[in-house]
Design goal:
Helices cover 17% and strands 34% of the residues. It is built from two helices and eleven strands. The strands form two sheets. A nine-stranded mixed β-sheet has the order 1-11-10-6-7-9-4-3-2, with no helix packed on it. The longest helix has 32 residues.
Length: 214
Amino acid sequence: MSATARRTTSARRTRRTAALLLGAALVSLTATACNSTGGASVSTEAKQTAAASAAPGSAQPAAGGAAGKSTDTPKAPAKVADTIALKSTDTGNTADVTAVKVVDPAESANEYLKPADGKRYVAVQFQIKATGAQAYSEAPFSSAKVVDTQGQAYGASLAETKAGPAFQTPTNIAPGDTGKGFVTFEVPNDAKLDKVQFALDNGFASQIGQWKIG
């Protein structure tokens, strides 16, 4: 490809990125206007599969145990590859969200678009299954954050990486169907990431899913 063609392709990607950013901003403003966030809650409990709950060693009620007393052991926080059942604030919509994997660092898919000096790209792949009566129709990159060991949170970047395909904006998933894509973050080189977060309603839902990295 000639230098002129590459510049033309880069310009098209820049315009596409600007359009996506504008669209996501409008979606986020709509969510802010329509949703009452109230007090947010962080959910770190992984959704158990039927196979996991039936596996040897899983918590079971003790025979002859005292009435009203739980014998379940505390559940470990969700980790990357676990699924968390999430719900929206007002619409009653729900989704099973999985933080599939973290690619750190991730290489830019555009030779002309690189992280700022002193920063790196990190790509997180999410899987979203629409479990409610309505379709999932949101911008996943506005729903996700990563948090470092100091508690500093980082929102998503519109950059795309070689880790894999990004979500479309908006992403539309019919009830019962599943979608998958990457969300990219630009973080300082010295930041040690500790958690991944995701919330419905384009990030404005009062319930926030959280996964431990590593």
